[in-house]
Known about the structure:
Strand content: 15-25%
Number of strands: 23
CATH superfamily of the largest domain: 2-enoyl-CoA Hydratase, Chain A, domain 1
Radius of gyration: 29 Å
Distance between the termini: 88 Å
Shape: globular
Largest sheet: 8 strands, mixed
CATH architecture of the largest domain: Alpha-Beta Complex
CATH topology of the largest domain: 2-enoyl-CoA Hydratase, Chain A, domain 1
Helix content: 40-55%
Mean pLDDT: 87
Low-confidence stretches: 38-46
Amino acid sequence: xxxxxxxxxxxxxxxxxxxxxxxxxxxxxxxxxxxxxxxxxxxxxxxxxxxxxxxxxxxxxxxxxxxxxxxxxxxxxxxxxxxxxxxxxxxxxxxxxxxxxxxxxxxxxxxxxxxxxxxxxxxxxxxxxxxxxxxxxxxxxxxxxxxxxxxxxxxxxxxxxxxxxxxxxxxxxxxxxxxxxxxxxxxxxxxxxxxxxxxxxxxxxxxxxxxxxxxxxxxxxxxxxxxxxxxxxxxxxxxxxxxxxxxxxxxxxxxxxxxxxxxxxxxxxxxxxxxxxxxxxxxxxxxxxxxxxxxxxxxxxxxxxxxxxxxxxxxxxxxxxxxxxxxxxxxxxxxxxxxxxxxxxxxxxxxxxxxxxxxxxxxxxxxxxxxxxxxxxxxxxxxxxxxxxxxxxxxxxxxxxxxxxxxxxxxxxxxxxxxxxxxxxxxxxxxxxxxxxxxxxxxxxxxxxxxxxxxxxxxxxxxxxxxxxxxxxxxxxxxxxxxxxxxxxxxxxxxxxxxxxxxxxxxxxxxxxxxxxxxxxxxxxxxxxxxxxxxxxxxxxxxxxxxxxxxxxxxxxxxxxxxxxxxxxxxxxxxxxxxxxxxxxxxxxxxxxxxxxxxxxxxxxxxxxxxxxxxxxx
Length: 618
């Protein structure tokens, strides 16, 4: 037998042994997974909800129309307890709606200690759901260690309001402040070329000046005064306070605190904003007096969390799609070109959702829920084209405006069959701008120059290391002016108004929903439910005979399988956080840096033309 043949057989035997070991290990792994799966299934049944309990609604972070981020990444983050703090408005509203008719829910405990805030229209939507729940005769108990202006608005609609003795009700009113960079830009020798149309188009002002323009100041004062008036009226009515009580509390907080010997929490009680000061142990005792002791923990009261309650309530009572449906598509966040994750409005990704509604024979109408201050004009046009395709196919589209639907956010709303805004929606801001910074003077200071040749005058244009030529600046301005003309012409055509009139209420001016209705920019004032009813009416659907179908980005089969497997691990008692270890300091720093840079780099309109509103009111 040759030496070569012996070696061949020797290594072949080793290979067969390793291959056999691989199969055994593979089998062991499969058996392990199946054992965990069946072990989870054979474990204790999911705990039933208490027969008599308080529903604990504890909004964490901001109230949003749509949670931000890729659905798979967020689902994994939720499994490992690392999801960004956000709470869906629809979750809170649905929980209150189900609990209203549920005999097992005796009351609602509105725990607002971890609530970060929301736009006034979102607060009003939740407040309306609280009032509707109270019509059942059941009470709502609100509590917090500390009340911000946003959290107190919701608390004011409860039957009883409690606060920690070391707490504070902080009502600061509404304002609009931002940073201005003109001096820094000059110091860094940057040429920040700005092109815009609209006397009130303030998004670009921080790059051109060091303070708020008179036009922007006038526009924002009109907004914040209306917001504060709405806030005051709503809270005073809900709490039964005398007229002017909220304004008086905010303006005289220091004087009243001195009179209360420095006890700022007592001021809130004295002024009728809070019913009683209770520490956490006292609050738990109060809740036990109302609903009894928790069967598993004598120190707690009988309760069910909103998340656990919604899982069962939606399974048993949730609205299901029918043979005829009104589809709901969310457009929340900045409008950007291409495919974008939820929490932003991608031109291509949102258009794909609209096409799904178009091809779905069960969808007879669409509600586009808009909560966006605008962005890319090109992406907005892509979305508008798909809205028009739905309308031409006989499927009416209704725009339901959330906290903000301005600039390009207004554009994708106005192309629908009907536009519905809440009184506190920030809308309008009809204007267009473009920006192109160049850094050639900055580079010169460190000894860097740029030179070269090209076949046409445009070969070296639109480079950040070269100054823009006069021709390039003129072309940019022409494109911006054409975009503005297209904007106001389109609004005039769709609203049935004169173009010159639209120009007078455009120019980048921002309006509340009330103002927009008076100016003819929206068809009616109403909430999300009004938009659903309007869409059904336009489609000729009978009340009660149609369902709702939420169309959103879906997980792939592979992503769903991984999530299911992680859920099995969790049910089997395995700590899934080991799969996603805590990020190190370098990764955390990189994430923070990326977040800061994203504010400038995320805008990706192919022509560099944007309709975006600085609509932050807080």
